[in-house]
Amino acid sequence: MKLAVFDFDSTLMEGETLEFIAKEYNIESLMKKITTDAMEGKIDFFESLIKRVALLKGAKEEKIKEICENLPYTKGAKETIIELKRLGYKVVCFSGGYETATIPAQKVLGYDAQFSNIFHFKNGILTGTLGGEMMFSDSKGKMLRRLQTLLDIDKENTIAIGDGANDLSMFNLAGKRVAFCAKPILKEHANIIIENKNLTELLNYI
Prior knowledge:
By secondary structure, this protein is α/β, with parallel strands linked by helices. It has nine helices and seven strands, in the order E-H-H-H-H-H-E-H-E-E-H-E-H-E-H-E. The protein has a single domain (2-205), classed as Rossmann fold (3-Layer(aba) Sandwich), CATH 3.40.50.1000. Helices cover 39% and strands 23% of the residues.
């Protein structure tokens, strides 16, 4: 058995979920600044999550779900996942984003499982807080190690694909470390760099 782990925002999906939501509330530029700093490793990932979700306090759950169910997926994402599964890979999504987006995407793209964060809503309104499995800079690495142990998959049979600093913790555990249209901090630790925003290019390295 082999394992391929994809980041969601700006990897499987064309952009950042929180920025699509922020656009609806006219705070996109402020949200983008915090996201960029986090993905470049300039601020702590957990700190960035707290700041970004707090900006959306008061947003309607119904509107957030509508936005998350209509996100644009990266060119070649579905085709790449289908081919990886045909080749014997278990395909998993690790997202520092939210299951409001990754669960609908799973139905479309076909990955086997997703691990992400959860918005906290009360009476249909976002409280500005969150919880979940991917809240810290090392969360993806810790979860990857658990999956490798559970599925008895070693480093050489593991691929990790991402674009930002919070994907770094996966790279020590993966034989193929893929920086996909990534920030410089991730490229420095990658052994595969893809600059064209088409995920089928990954298949050239399998």
